[in-house]
Design the sequence.
């Protein structure tokens, strides 16, 4: 391996008493993709900013392109989280600005622009304002701006956030091409599946390095200990709970109809009898993932029993669907944000709305919450019609908004107090519920801390606590686990699975394809329409047919179905 | 720093800034529509003139002289008269605000005139509105003096000296003559401080600052790229104001365009410097706009001598006005408009404004760091 284009040793960075980076070392090799992987708040952005010379480390040695950080800016390409684009400038103007700032010789400009616009497929959109581009296109333009003068080091700060899987794959392919030219790339991401594609990975958690090396080393460590258990569709949630409570299982997730388990190191892989899973159970080995390795390094996932579910009331059985959408449509002016949404969710099921950002998930969601009035169609929550009894509908659901909408400058207790009042609990019920939530979510020590200063994982717990305090029969979850570490995510789903066993009905939006696996049924929303619905396994099976791949992941399925929809649309346009 | 200052980067940044100005409707509104609104407001709606003030005129005497003086009041351009025979009749009009003053021509006024010892008239004003009260008193007395002069001229005993007031530079004491230069100060403060503070804070908020700092760009180039376009925008807006003031409102312009440009340019230095300083220190559009309103806009409005005369403020407030850059803008502007290029008066103010500008620019260079820490 030739000399690193950037390296750092013993980097420490503190913000007002919080240690963001705690003795981190990293080397970025030329011609390679180095992954900087970790959940939100792990310190990825801070490290990248230190390498780019935008922040000063409190301790540590940093060398970038052979000098101190910030010295060789001519050879640095940097794409910050929001891409660093001027939204009121056009695509061409943004490129020109960066070309001039980086001192690209005028004579080369046209050739470089042509190449970059081809590369990013933005040629047709040169005159469009950057603010009017889709997320995926912005991301590509951001990359093009960072590349106007071929850098030796390219720093990408979470380039895949909020972008649909197709654009994410395209970006990955583009960056792969760049490494062929000898550029050293540092790619930071919270998506663990992206880590598997990097040449080398640095896994950060709470400012510390948990792992460094080729991703295969981490997944290799758990190989042979990952199994898929299937054959008990209806009971899979209860089975997972029981399996996770076993001492030899350190992690488990639901994968459509089956359950995936990670066995503790040094333990025998159990068979069907040992797992006591019933007569039809099949056990087969499954391919290990980077996430499995991460979870093991973090000391394993949570146990299976949810303290929240144990205390929750049993939701009475009901013959009518708990959530219904009949032709829900919402238009904003001449733009249709959601068209003809139809689904019906029975009691005690998890239903997922999947799709890229801006596809219409949140619009559909907000109509069902009664936050947006539908332009057409009807809907009902717990039997309450949205048009006639919107207030009753709202009262019967718990809502967990994107980014955990908490009052950051109120304490944890004050937040709980507020939501208890907002959901109509009286003083005594409220005090009781708050006490229970503090115990279940282990908030005790932090009750008087401002919610805004909580670590992300605790924010998520608090947001869930606020949404379930009044024990609603229906839960609405909008991107509930965005950015949190996998253990916190497991914990969250343990609670949700437990609640569903008690009869709670859950509607969840997510762009995390793995999360879709927890759903009983999903619908894929793309360009304001439902392009496919069914169980996760059914969608995967359809995608397997469409794309001829065996055993596709949910993300593969997502991409195949969207591409199929695009093809159909083109055919229609051509006809 | 200057060795690294690159003209090409500066030009690219300035072009970008101009493109953003052209596309941002709010910039256009502040630079060109706001001046129009302000000028028309001050030109027509807000008037500090008290032409046609309503007064109650009590004529207790029925002599020819008393009636003649009463008709002088009635025909005055400044008063609208409510006639009465006794103070009791009109006392309430002063209380409820129908009349701004009561002028009493007392019993025996005519006899006194004939005897050569004219008795004083009485002027009662509403002290709760001091400006109007002063005006009514002064002009009430003025009408009497003028009438008296004419009367004595007709008779044999002309007084050796008569006083006839004349207001130089603004003979009609039209308030729009000094409100219009004042609104130029407001507009330039809005552009120089408020807009600049907003656009720089926006770069921090939207993350473009971060991307810019990772390019070879120097902070000096960045600051210059913000100063140049908004400086030109300020001058352009000032020119628009002046043209409207002169050609639409007929405000005299007795100085030279050069002197006006020099004064405006000098004022834009502290205005822009303060804007840059605020945005670099806050990095947040909302906070920046609040601070800009408090430290630039309100002082320009209230403490610059534009609406309220500094000389009539209590001394602590007067002391405060010395650190308001607009205080040094209003007098030279009024000089240029109403008197002419009196460089002896203008230059000291220009020097002080440039001094403030240098201070603010120094401060903003100190707080603008190429760092996200």
Sequence:
């Amino acid at each position: 391996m030739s000399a690193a284009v950037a390296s750092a040793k013993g980097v420490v960075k503190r913000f007002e008493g919080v240690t963001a980076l705690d003795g981190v070392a990293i080397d970025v090799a030329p011609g390679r993709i180095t992954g900087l992987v970790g959940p939100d708040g792990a310190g990825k952005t801070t490290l990248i900013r230190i390498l780019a010379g935008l922040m000063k480390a409190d301790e540590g040695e940093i060398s970038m392109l052979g000098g101190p950080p910030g010295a060789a800016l001519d050879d640095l390409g940097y794409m910050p989280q929001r891409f660093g684009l001027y939204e009121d400038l056009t695509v061409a103007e943004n490129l020109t600005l960066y070309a001039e700032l980086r001192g690209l010789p005028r004579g080369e400009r046209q050739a470089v622009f042509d190449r970059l616009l081809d590369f990013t497929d933005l040629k047709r959109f040169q005159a469009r304002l950057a603010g009017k581009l889709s997320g995926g296109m912005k991301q590509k333009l951001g990359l093009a701006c960072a590349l106007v003068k071929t850098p030796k080091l390219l720093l990408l700060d979470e380039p895949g956030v909020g972008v649909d899987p197709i654009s994410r794959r395209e970006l990955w392919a583009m960056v792969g091409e760049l490494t062929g030219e000898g550029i050293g790339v540092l790619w930071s991401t919270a998506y663990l599946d992206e880590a598997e594609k990097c040449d080398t990975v640095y896994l950060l958690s709470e400012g510390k390095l948990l792992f460094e090396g080729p991703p295969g080393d981490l997944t290799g460590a758990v190989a042979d200990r990952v199994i898929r258990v299937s054959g008990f569709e209806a009971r899979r949630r209860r089975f997972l709970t029981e399996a996770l409570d076993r001492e030899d299982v350190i992690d488990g997730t639901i994968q459509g109809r089956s359950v995936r388990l990670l066995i503790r190191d040094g333990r025998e892989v159990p068979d069907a009898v040992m797992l006591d899973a019933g007569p039809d159970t099949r056990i087969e080995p499954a391919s290990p993932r980077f996430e499995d390795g991460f979870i093991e390094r973090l000391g394993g996932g949570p146990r299976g029993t949810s303290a929240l579910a144990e205390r929750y009331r049993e939701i009475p059985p009901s013959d009518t669907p708990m959530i219904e959408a009949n032709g829900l449509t919402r238009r904003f002016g001449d733009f249709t944000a959601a068209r003809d949404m139809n689904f019906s969710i029975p009691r005690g099921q998890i239903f997922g709305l999947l799709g890229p950002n801006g596809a219409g998930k949140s619009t559909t969601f907000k109509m069902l919450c009664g936050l947006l009035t539908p332009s057409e169609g009807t809907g009902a929550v717990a039997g309450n019609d949205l048009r006639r009894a919107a207030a009753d509908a709202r009262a019967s659901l718990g809502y967990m908004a994107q980014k955990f909408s908490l009052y950051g400058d109120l304490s944890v207790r004050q937040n709980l107090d507020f939501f208890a009042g907002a959901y109509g609990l009286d003083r005594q019920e409220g005090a009781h519920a708050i006490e229970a939530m503090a115990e279940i979510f282990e908030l005790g020590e932090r009750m008087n801390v401002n919610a805004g200063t909580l670590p992300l994982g605790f924010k998520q717990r608090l947001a869930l606590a606020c949404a379930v305090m009044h024990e609603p029969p229906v839960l609405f979850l909008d991107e509930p686990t965005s950015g949190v570490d996998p253990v916190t995510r497991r914990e969250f789903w343990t609670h949700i699975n437990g609640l569903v066993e008690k009869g709670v009905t859950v509607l969840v939006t997510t762009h995390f394809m793995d999360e879709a696996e927890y759903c009983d049924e999903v619908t894929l929303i793309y360009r304001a329409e439902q392009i496919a619905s069914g169980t996760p396994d059914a969608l995967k099976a359809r995608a397997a047919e469409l794309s001829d791949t065996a055993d596709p992941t949910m993300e593969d399925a997502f991409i195949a179905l969207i591409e199929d929809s695009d093809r159909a649309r083109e055919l229609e346009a051509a006809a | 720093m200057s060795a690294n200052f690159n003209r090409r980067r500066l030009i690219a940044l300035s072009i970008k800034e101009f493109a953003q100005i052209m596309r941002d409707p709010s910039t256009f509104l502040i630079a060109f529509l706001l001046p129009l609104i302000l000028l028309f407001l001050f030109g027509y709606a807000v008037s500090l003139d008290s032409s046609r003030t309503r007064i109650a005129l009590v004529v207790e005497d029925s002599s020819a002289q008393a009636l003649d003086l009463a008709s002088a009041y009635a025909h005055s351009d400044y008063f609208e008269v409510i006639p009465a025979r006794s103070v009791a009749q009109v006392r309430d009009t002063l209380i409820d605000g129908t009349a701004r003053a009561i002028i009493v021509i007392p019993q025996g006024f005519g006899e006194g005139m004939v005897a050569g010892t004219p008795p004083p008239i009485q002027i009662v004003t509403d002290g709760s509105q001091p400006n109007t009260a002063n005006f009514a008193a002064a002009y009430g007395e003025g009408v009497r003096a003028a009438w008296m002069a004419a009367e004595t001229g007709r008779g044999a005993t002309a007084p050796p000296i008569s006083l006839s007031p004349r207001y130089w530079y603004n003979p009609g004491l039209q308030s729009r003559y000094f409100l219009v230069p004042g609104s130029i100060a407001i507009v330039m403060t809005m552009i120089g401080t408020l807009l600049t503070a907003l656009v720089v804070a926006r770069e921090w908020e939207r993350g473009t600052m971060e991307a810019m700092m990772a390019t070879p760009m120097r902070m000096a180039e960045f600051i210059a790229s913000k100063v140049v376009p908004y400086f030109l925008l300020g001058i352009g807006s000032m020119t628009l104001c002046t043209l409207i003031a002169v050609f639409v409102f007929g405000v005299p312009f007795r100085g030279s365009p050069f002197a006006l440009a020099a004064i405006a340019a000098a004022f834009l230095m502290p205005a822009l410097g303060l804007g840059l300083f605020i945005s670099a220190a806050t990095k947040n559009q909302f906070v920046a706009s609040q601070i800009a309103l408090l430290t630039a806009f309100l002082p320009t409005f209230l403490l610059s001598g534009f609406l309220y005369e500094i000389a009539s403020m209590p001394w602590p407030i007067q002391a405060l006005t010395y650190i308001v850059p607009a205080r040094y803008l209003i007098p030279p502007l009024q000089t240029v408009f109403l008197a002419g290029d009196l460089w002896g008066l203008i230059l000291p103010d220009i020097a002080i404004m440039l001094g403030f500008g240098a201070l603010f620019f120094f401060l903003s260079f100190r707080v603008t760091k190429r760092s996200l820490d």
Remarks:
- The mean pLDDT of chain B is 84.
